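Form 7-S
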Amino acid sequence: MDERIIQFKLEETNETVDFEVYDQIEYGGHKYLLVIEAGLEDDEEAEGVILRQIGEEDDDLIYDLIDDEQEYMMVLELFRENADEYDLDYLKED
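Output:
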């Protein structure tokens, strides 16, 4: 498996989904990943997801979505500052 491709196991369904890691940063003692679903890398309308590492289990790292909007916006801005090869737009869901 390509080192830029990681697998996530969805707890609800036990389904595995492949994501490509576009970028990673550390902020406030936490590690964050910017990922996009594998296979959609060339789609200009593809949506990225920011995940925060919340723990480790055996050899697996555990990531989750960011619940806090202020934390999310801060991390999003840090990714924007590092973004040389991609554009980030914030889409707020209702």
